[in-house]
Write a structure and sequence with these properties.
The structure is a single chain. This protein has about 110 residues and is mostly helical. The protein has 2 domains: about 35 residues; about 55 residues, Arc Repressor Mutant, subunit A. Strands 1-2 form a two-stranded antiparallel sheet. The longest helix is centred in the first third of the chain and has 27 residues. The model has no long low-confidence stretch (mean pLDDT about 80).
Length: about 110
């Protein structure tokens, strides 16, 4: 059994090395025009974003369930609002099933450009 396991590990190591070599060749070849995708996906603006931030500040915490109840929206939209609030730095990271903490105590304001 140990010889079989050692053989499998060696084969997987060789495959991983070959795969890395192929990826490097593709990345460095101008014919393929490789452009890495952006690391952070900026969510689309939501008209309820400011209201969600106000709710979080009012209650001192925010969760998808709280946003669903207060804004009468579905889970998907509440989750997107949470992602946007986290991306903008208004709430902390997720901690299991606990509500997220508020990091900023000011509501985002709309900027008027003249």
């Amino acid at each position: 059994m140990n010889a079989l396991l050692a053989t499998i590990i060696i084969v997987l190591t060789v495959i991983a090395g070959e795969l890395w070599w192929v990826i490097q060749r593709v990345k460095n070849n101008p014919f393929f025009n490789y452009k890495p995708e952006p690391k952070v996906d900026i969510p689309d603006p939501d008209p309820l974003f400011e209201q969600a931030a106000k709710i979080g500040i009012e209650f001192g915490k925010v969760s998808a369930a709280l946003l669903q109840r207060r804004l009468s929206i579905g889970y998907a939209r509440a989750s997107k609002l949470l992602d946007r609030l986290a991306f903008e730095g208004y709430i902390g990271p997720a901690d299991g099933l606990k509500p997220r903490i508020i990091l900023k105590n000011r509501v985002p304001s709309k900027r008027i450009v003249n």
